[in-house]
Automatic annotation (TrEMBL):
Organism: Spinacia oleracea (Spinach)
Function: Catalyzes the conversion of hemimercaptal, formed from methylglyoxal and glutathione, to S-lactoylglutathione.
Protein name: Lactoylglutathione lyase
Cofactor section: Zn(2+)
GO cellular component, one term: cytoplasm
Active site feature: 145
Binding positions (Zn(2+)): 79, 97, 145
Annotated metabolic or biological route of this protein: Secondary metabolite metabolism; methylglyoxal degradation; (R)-lactate from methylglyoxal: step 1/2
């Protein structure tokens, strides 16, 4: 809505300010795995994650396991979903990787190799840059990037997704989610650009790494990766903001704001312009879930 000329902010302009002042942080990333016990063993033994909690929902025939490097009250976590009897998933071409920061990628790769882990990219400087990286494949086929970085409060530091229009995605995550571009890199020789989107510098917290490969506007999504969860103080106001931004940039609300039946946790879910899903979770309800 345009300003009315009386000096007061238009209602939509006020609403669009909300995500910037809301209490937001990355809570967890949700994805499906074909063998829960094997994945938990791999993440704890090869990556050094801790099993934080587990819940079985037999009436819906699935089990969740939460793993990470610290308490979910302040750290990012992975939420693994095992659907009874489903041992294989299609990861698609759009999902990129999760990332783990570690002070010595070479040593971590050596340890993972010794434990039988699959290294898909040997340790060394990233093509076109200097940061030391390596890629590891988990038992379902998800790629984890290992990134050499001095000690950090959040080792589980990236979720990388490929997008078809980087500027459109940046606008979406800024406006709908209140994120900032914490780093932008263009590598013309490698024909890609990336935008790290988040709520704090990438060395301090998890960021969403959006990758644009020159000329590629579409990817497949498969059925393995699900969504990232981010906290909010108000799912209803957040939903109004997302609806407004969807009208301008695309995407859509997939679950209207409200409590999840049986859980009492208020959420709102939506797709970005490429179809990647985010769920916003009420801050207080989330903390109650952890008790
Ligand atoms: C540190 C940070 O800059 C990176 O690690 S970027 C990693 C780099 N990403 C890409 O190449 C993205 C484009 C690619 N076509 C894709 O869609 O994944 C990377 O994976 N480099 C590979 C390497 O061997 O250096």
């Amino acid at each position: 809505m345009a300003g009315c000329g009386c000096g007061a902010a238009a209602p939509n302009a006020e609403l669009l300010e909300f995500p910037k002042t809301d209490k937001r942080r990355f809570l967890h990333v949700v994805y499906r795995v074909g063998d829960l016990d094997r994945t938990i063993k791999f993440y704890t033994e090869c990556f050094g994650m801790k099993l934080l909690r587990k819940r079985d929902v037999p009436e819906e025939k699935y089990t969740n396991a939460f793993l990470g490097f610290g308490s979910e009250e302040s750290n990012f976590a992975v939420e693994l979903t095992y659907n009874y009897g489903v041992d294989h998933y299609d990861i698609g071409t759009g999902f990129g990787h999760f990332a783990i920061a570690t002070p010595d990628v070479y040593k971590m790769v050596e340890d993972i190799r010794a434990k039988g882990g699959v290294i898909t990219r040997a340790p060394g400087p990233v093509k076109g840059g200097s940061t030391v990286i390596a890629f590891v494949k988990d038992p379902t086929g998800y790629i984890f990037e290992l990134i050499q970085r001095c000690s950090t409060p959040e080792p589980l530091c990236q979720v990388m997704l490929r997008v078809g229009d980087l500027e459109r995605s940046i606008k979406f995550y800024e406006k709908a989610l209140g994120m900032k571009v914490v780093k932008k890199t263009d590598r013309p020789e490698q024909k890609y650009s990336i935008a790290m989107m988040g709520y704090a510098p990438e060395e301090e917290t998890t960021v969403l790494e959006l990758t644009y490969n020159y000329g590629v506007t579409e990817y497949t999504k498969g059925n393995a990766y699900a969504q990232v969860a981010i906290s909010t103080d108000d799912v209803y106001k957040s939903g109004e903001v997302v609806s407004l931004v969807n009208q301008e940039l695309g995407g859509k609300i997939t679950r209207q704001p409200g409590a999840v039946p049986g859980l009492n946790t208020k959420i709102v879910s939506f797709l970005d312009p490429d179809g990647w899903k985010t769920v916003l979770v009420d801050n207080e309800d989330f903390l109650k879930e952890l008790k």
